[in-house]
Amino acid sequence: MPEADARGETLRPSKVGVGCLTTIAGFFSGGMIAVFVAKVVGSAQGCKPPEGLPACNWWVYAGIGALIGAVTLPVLALRRLNQPRVGE
Q: If we measure between CA atoms, which residue out of 54, 56, 36, 59 comes closest to residue 45?
């Protein structure tokens, strides 16, 4: 049975929507941050990426970062939504 707020409206569909949108946002943002990390690591190691690529082995970093972002952003957002509101 879906949860209801004080007005009797269900909250589950909004949480599903938030979860889906933050999964997509987390996937792409985590991947972009990880590619930046790959650039920093590659620079520290003295790696020269091929022409037109952002960093050496960027796809490994992007894949792992995208998976981490796709999991952590929805978890953080839904945990925040499930916290009790102050004053209620």
A: 56
List C-alpha distances in Å: 38 to 13, 22, 61, 66: 37, 23, 6, 13
Exposure on the CB side of residue 59, measured as CA atoms within 13 A: 1
Identify whether the C-beta of residue 60 lies closer than 8 Å to the C-beta of residue 17: no
Show me where the domains of the chain are located.
Answer: 21-45+53-78
How many degrees, rounded to 5, is the angle at CA 20 between CA 18 and CA 21?
65
Instruction: From first to last of the 88 residues of the chain, give the pLDDT tens digit.
Output: 455 555 555 567 788 888 999 999 999 999 999 999 999 999 999 999 999 999 999 999 999 999 999 999 999 999 998 888 777 6
